[in-house]
Amino acid sequence: MTELDIAEVARRAGVPASTLRFYEEKGLIASTGRRGLRRQYDPGVVERLALIALGRTAGFSLDEIAGMFAPDGQPRLDRRMLADKADELDRRIRELGVLRDSLRHAAACPAPSHMECSTFRRLLEAALSGAVGRRGDRGPGHRDRR
Which residues, other chains included, contact 138 with Cβ-Cβ below 8 Å and sequence gap of 6+? Predict the structure, then answer.
């Protein structure tokens, strides 16, 4: 199969060319050369970009994702790290479920003021204690640059 230029890779992967250049700078992908001023990529880069997107969606940092590839570019997934991330997502899903239910209650609560609602007050206490709404340095919504 022939090489793909940066515009075609960007189109197939659904990311801007600037993201491809950034990923290349971070060592996540590599171009095979240039045709004129346009970077060229092996067609397999699209699959690698899909793996990167999946990792980002799961909440892995770009550095963590970079460590998931062997020097030859093949995926080298640490099963323990994947299981730990799944556990982290389970915790976050439980937290979000409590938050969702609390917000639905607050939206329909018959109390004259949310501050008079015991359910809403428990939500505030949970937020204050860090049990709901705070994330550590790394969470499913964390982003570093792209």
Answer: 59, 61
